[in-house]
Write a structure and sequence with these properties.
This protein has 260 residues and is an all-alpha fold. It has helices at 13-22, 25-34, 37-44, 53-73, 82-101, 106-126, 132-139, 143-179, 185-202, 206-217, 222-229, 233-259.
């Protein structure tokens, strides 16, 4: 079942105070139901991934367990929103589940690499990005198979982006915990990481910025972005992958600077 914020009751400081005092399970469950939308929203952000029903249920269970842990650890007196506190951790737990699941078979990664190699070769020969039909002919597959490989590549890229955000959120949080405990670190984390990510995106070239913005912030599909930019879906996928590679490098350099 999906839960959304509008479906739930508001949890006030008075309720948090009572739970802190009593640790009543029924009250904890009331709080849990009110914040289950955090799990739904974080799984929805993975909607480009090919997730079977069993994995979806396992991811939901993982997110709910982490949400319960967050309720147990939450200190309402620090003036921090529970949504902020829990979202970072629930998102991280879901990504950890997917990573440990090793959900991308080796042959899928090989097919993606072969497709990109063929695309680069054809572009050198033709002086332009190849069409899907040209790629299909070179690889001896159907256009439908080309589309499937591109979807697999998109899944890889989306997961890479989610891991990128999760890893650097965690690193920033650890840095803040070490450096200062004067302010709620999760609020600092949200503001600082958004600013850092925006600066990193600004370093990308025009096409890379456009693809990242349209896909992650405007939530357009690959084919829609291809139409808007007058490029092939294959080319959009390549730009997307290159942009993520650069973002990973920029964020890593930033965190290395902060930690030194």
């Amino acid at each position: 079942m999906n839960f959304y914020k509008s479906d739930t009751a508001v949890i006030t400081d008075k309720i948090w105070e009572e739970y802190e005092r009593t640790k009543d399970v029924a009250l904890r469950n009331q709080i849990l139901v009110s914040y289950l939308y955090i799990v739904t929203c974080n799984i929805k952000k993975m909607n480009a991934l090919s997730i079977c029903r069993e994995d979806y249920e396992d991811m939901t269970n993982q997110g709910v367990l982490e949400l319960i842990n967050c309720i147990e650890r939450f200190d309402y007196t620090r003036g921090i929103q529970f949504d902020t506190f829990a979202s970072i951790r629930v998102r991280g737990s879901i990504i950890d589940y997917i990573r440990k699941k090793d959900w991308v078979p080796r042959d899928v990664r090989k097919r993606v690499k072969d497709l990109n190699d063929a695309s680069n070769e054809l572009q050198s020969e033709l002086g332009r990005p190849p069409s899907d039909s040209e790629l299909a002919a070179k690889l001896g597959v159907t256009e439908e198979e080309i589309h499937k490989i591109r979807q697999d590549e998109l899944n890889l890229n989306v997961m890479g982006f989610e891991e990128l955000l999760s890893e650097n959120n965690a690193r920033l949080l650890n840095t803040r915990n070490t450096a200062s405990n004067e302010q709620p670190e999760e609020m600092l984390l949200q503001d600082e990481f958004k600013q850092v990510l925006a600066k990193c995106i600004d370093k990308l070239d025009k096409n890379e910025r456009t693809v990242i913005t349209l896909y992650y912030f405007e939530e357009l599909k690959l084919k829609e972005i291809a139409f808007v930019m007058d490029l092939t879906p294959s080319r959009i996928s390549q730009i997307h992958a290159k942009a993520l590679e650069k973002l990973r490098k920029y964020l890593s350099e930033y965190m290395d600077t902060k930690n030194n």
